[in-house]
Amino acid sequence: MSEPETQQRILASSAVMAAGTVFSRASGFIRSALLVVALGGGLRADLFSIANTLPNMVYILLAGGIFNAVLVPQLVRRIKADADGGDAYASRVITLSALFLGLVTVLLVVLAPLLLRVYLSDRLLEPDRVAHLESIVDLTRWCLPQVFFYGMYVLVGQVLNARGRFGPMMWAPIANNIISVGVLAAYLVVWGPVGDGPGRGEALGSSQEVLLGLGSTVGIVAQCLVLLPYLRASGFTYRPRFDFRDPELRHTLSLGVWTVLFVVATQTAYLVVVKLASGGTAGDAEGTGYTVYSASLLIMMVPHSIVTVSLATAILPRLSSYAHEGRLADLGSTVGSTLRTSLVLVLPFAVVLPIVAGDVAGFAFGWAGGEDTAASFAPTLALFGPALVFFTVHYFMLRGFYAMEMTRLVFFIQLAVSATNIVVATALVPRRPPEETAPMLVVAYLASYAVGAGVSFVLLRRTVGGLQTPQLVRFLVRMLLVLAAAGAAAALVEWGLSGLGERPGPLLALLRGGLSGLAGGLVLLVGARVLRVTEVTSLVDTVAARLRRG
Asked: pTM above the 0.70 mark?
């Protein structure tokens, strides 16, 4: 199969996933905006946001670890090799995972106060913050049952992906977001928005904790359950199996040892980030902390989830097949060409976001009298734009290593990433005022993935014999020229509409930011045609053809 045909099939496979992700991220965006309206961007919001750290930590362990990166290649092999299409193997994995997740959930509920003391800034452990500490412990215990359902969602979703059913896993989070939006809407009806007043720093009451914590858990339960009908429709029938001595299962778990170590390294860095972030809002009413950091990261992850994850999920079975057949040159070619396709959308985002960061923040978080709160998000958002480029390159390189089951090497690469993040964050944050806590954490994030992208690219290119580097260099040179013009156009429109004010309100911010982004996008398309950036023009032509057929 030729490279253009391969890319067309990858784009087709990722289209359904991308559509689901667009709707999922849109509903998630509404949820994030309502959370800031309800709780603000300060300490009160951080209590709830950090309470989700423990279940999210395990979710990341599973989604970015054994299930996501190791299990799919194994399932693809078993579907091809086993007479039952891999059903027995998948049933063993599901049974073992359910037992493991259940035990982990119980332990986390019991140990929540101790674990939170590890995660939180010492400022939150001082006597004048007793009410805040009690509030976050209660919230965390309401949220912790999510661990089981997060893990089962990832596992069932990856079984579907291995069987070529990519859409349901991308669409399922919409159910969670709808419930979360309903919970936050109920909160606003009962208690109203916090605005820019002193309530941003107060602890939550018991009723508020139950509504927010339990409501969040119900959403994750729904996200998991909606996958079950699709699992049955795929032809898979689950039967509990306790014969865990399957040699292939032991092989999967042996590969998972290095993946777990990978996650330990990642979560160690994440622990440091949360601990530093919690100090930003606990020590100063104007400080920025975990809510600002995580909500800005969510916005950065929109193009990542729509483009990069969809493409990477679509090519992972293909990469696994190439690795199994020893076709390393084809593996490198697929990774290289798909990386360029992803960068077509990631690079413009990285250039335009710093220009319109104030408008994005104003529209996303400036509702119900929260203009000052929204303004505190802008510096963090601006820095996340360039960081996304390095994260994207690193992410694609790791997919290649995972397809070849080189989890040991991935661990050492991630060790360098995490170490850089920790060193830069601990060097910068304590030396800057509390309002710069979140932006400094993004600087550390950017530095860490710059290291990861460079190291992983060099090592994967050396391993597979090439990643179409000459084509990548030509693409980047042309894109930089085009993006310089596109960024200038966006900045010119932003400057021309500066008369609307520094904080014009959400709708005017949407208008100004939208026009600036539109100007940049039009210049990008024209420049890509003029300089013949085929990665851009072919993607546009593919989308246009699909729209005409639709």
From this structure: yes
